[in-house]
Amino acid sequence: MFSAPDYQELSQLTGSYSLEMNILSILVIVFASFTTLNLYDRMQKPSFFKREVWLVLASLALAFGIWSTHFLAMNSLVLPVEMHVDYTWGFLCILPIFFAALLAFHLVQTPMKICWRHAVAAALIADGMSIMHLLGMKAMKMDVYISYNWLLMILANVIAGLLTYFALRAISHPKRAVLSKVSAVAFLTAGTAAVHFIGMFGTGFYIETGQALGEPVMHMHFMNTLIGVGAGLLLVAMLLVSYVDGYLDYWLKYFDVLTKLPNRRNWERCLTDDVAAGDVAVWNFPDLQRINQLYGYEAGDEILQEIGSLLAKWKPTFTELYRVSGNRYLFYVKQAGRYADFHKFLVIMQREIDQLLPIKRQEMRYVCGVAKADQHKSVKQLYKEAMMVVEQAAITREWGLLTFDPAIHGMSYERDVLRDISKALKENHISLVYQPKVKGAHAEFVGVEALLRWMHPDLGPIPPATFVPILEQDGRMGEVTDWIIREVCRQIHNWDSQGTHIPQVAINIPGEYVTDPHLLDLLWKETGAYKIDPSRIELEITETSTAKSIPQAIAAMKRFKRYGFSVALDDFGTGVSSLSYLQQLPITTLKIDKSFTDGVPAPPKKCAVLNAILAIGCSMDLAVVIEGVERQKQAEFLLELKSDLTFQGYYFSRPLTVPQLNDWVAEAMKRKKSPNLSAFPIK
């Protein structure tokens, strides 16, 4: 089979090819390539299914497509001999391309340099195709001798490798347009076709001189049935799984899991500057947090579900109902001139809620803020007015149905903050500063933490401690965090372009935004767009935010780590139940709050808690960062407790603007030959 024939004793057979079967084989590999790349695309995104599921399915789709193409191409070959299939080899020959694709698709997710990992992955897939083709030929049982033109076989392998490389680069483009995906399908299809058709062109079939020829007979009915039904159904099933997962992902993004109602993100798609058709009403239940604390989150969830069911039951047909935050529901009237009808329904809902809540023997106050539409107000304006009513009610302790009155519901400081946050992001009133972190007695520069600063044009500088809680309470901190992520990735790219090496940048992730699927989507998109290794981004998550929904937080943090991002637990020791669930959290770094270091140096008894925390970090092999170090004696004392601590504080540097940080890093590099704690602060 693998040796050149003796042409004096053998005669070469000349066959013909069925155009219909060749076209069918091309269609099969086109569909298989599309399915493969669709599954590969899902593998790189946060998903309802684990990444490994998409990895196996994508590899299976490609393997089945190439396997089917081979045997369909053999079906198209017409030789004057009988042709059988050795089904043992027929099934075994799929394994090389399956494992090659499995390894290749895994490889493209590794931190290896992008051009190299795509090149190696393409070579693996091309080699898998070639091996599969050769073993597939071994599965064909014919009374002939088979010889190969190895130059053509190598050429086919090289062409397949190049085309597969272009396919992987196209589908991995950060802005995956339809054209990129079409190009990737075309490249992968052409690569597979090259292996098989150039391989077939370079394959010679020989018989002994004088051997009688028969009629062309193909004994491949079972194989044809398997390809036509089995492989087809499998590919269709895998494609459907991808679309089902896409639907689930969409549902989880735009609908509330607890109440099954459209969520805040869904409502935000309606927030435009267009004139509103009808009114907006926001129901707020401020005592929910107290109920959760007294009776547990299950009791609070049960009440929210019953309220959601009640509101949905009485929802007028001309309205849409949303759950816009943990304790708020929103109605939006889609038709003009329905205020009187809508108000009647609100009165009915109020009566029903009054009857519902006492049954639970809970004191649950509520307010429904109503903003009336007119010919000039936009949807955004109505939403702001409804929220003003809700916020004012919390201050004045008014409850029940309340309608917006500009004379009563004037602007407060908090409302100014909420009103101006989007404008501040657009007009650069909000900026980032970066505080360096150094490690050990040699003060090795290991990264920075990105911190927010807001210079309001009217209110002056607003401290983060003031505006962050306001934004978190209103659910707006996610919008600001998205801006921070984009800005940090852009800045890392700029530093790299300028030759300034910043090893890692820490970003604070607020509250329940940790579990929002959009967060990982954005992180992966931005790091990919700027070609940043995800390990250079550290996500700082507070104890308090994870304690509210531990299982969901753990799952989210595992996804962050799987995609290569570092995860730090911030302000450790200031939250609740920290020691009981710390070992469950898949973190890489422990940040100790400033309150634990303010009193050092101190006697051993006063440092007992700090020593215990350091011991925990050491036993769990975590990097430990000490915040708020302001004096050299503090750093020296802490290093005696643990020699490889990382420090962040005013002794080493205040938070710096980008130009200031560039100067700080340059100065730190000059002192690198003999670094020590006494070299700080760098002026």
Structure commentary:
This protein has 683 residues and is of the alpha/beta class. The chain is built from 23 helices and 22 strands. Strands 14-15-17-18-19-20-21-22 form an eight-stranded mixed beta barrel, surrounded by five helices. Strands 10-11-9-12-13 form a five-stranded mixed beta sheet. Strand 12 (367-371), helix 13 (379-396) and strand 13 (400-403) form a beta-alpha-beta unit. Helix 4 packs antiparallel against helix 5 (114-138), helix 5 packs parallel to helix 7 (178-201) and helix 11 packs antiparallel against helix 12. It is globular and about 105 Å long. It starts with 9 loop residues before the first strand and ends in a 13-residue tail after the last helix.
